[in-house]
Amino acid sequence: MDDLLDAFLHYEAVERGLAENTIASYRHDLLLYLSFIDELDISSLQQTNRMHIQAFLVELHHQGKASATLSRCVASIRAFYNFLLQERIVDHDPAIYVHSPKIARKLPHVLTMDEVSSLLVMPDPSTEMGLRDKAMFEVLYATGIRVSELISLNVSDVNLSASFLRCLGKGSKERIIPLGRFARQAVVAYTQAARYSLLQDKEDKALFVNHLGKRLTRQGFWKIIKKYAKMAGIKQDITPHTLRHSFATHLLENGADLRAVQEMLGHADISTTQIYTHVTTTRLKDVYDKSHPRA
What we know:
Blueprint: H1 2-15, H2 20-39, H3 50-62, H4 67-86, H5 113-120, H6 128-143, H7 147-152, E1 158-159, E2 164-168, E3 174-178, H8 181-193, H9 195-198, H10 218-231, H11 242-253, H12 258-265, H13 270-273, H14 275-291
Antiparallel strand pairs: 1-2, 2-3
Helix pairs in contact: 1-2, 2-4, 3-4, 6-8, 6-11, 11-14
């Protein structure tokens, strides 16, 4: 079974070009599933059926796993059996009638425009790290790219003369996004006065690097934005995607077209983008309730 899992992960990574995070999720979920199957003394995946998968999900539920985790596990198992069918290793798909648990869709937390402004002025432009942090925050808020996409940027991905950047999103899909004036100025300041001296390997193509001179990690960015949020006096919990959510919400609040926002965010399905319309509606209702004399 381990060999089949390795073959599946190789296929998804090499043939389909799925992102590293997706491959890591597949590996984590399927290792749990295969371990569960092994404990049932099932020697072949050909012997598995729908009841085995449902028993696995029940076990995860008893362990306190969230609905989102269970839903992701179902998706991983389905992808695995699709591969096994394609390779004719099994002759049936036991996952076909297994339903994913419903996930309560939470509205993303966003910052107000004033909070974003407070955050953006926190980095100290007289220091190399301050220039880097300012540039990162400005790029995130200007483009709405994911943090994983931000830290994957190379210098060649940013066209400063034309004010746009190119990024590879989920499934290695490329998209071109406009870069605002303030973000462009911040990147110019960082690349001219800080990046080169921060680099450990002067040939490194990474745009944003850490204090060791290597490409910044997602965990490193999370610590950075947490620090500045505290400095800015922002009370709500900050996540690596907070500026992405704020970017989308503020665009829609100011009349941007939903399809254009979908394209910039890199959402395959517009229903994913529509969650931000619910955020703007909720925020408008809050303003109404606080301001209208007969609310």
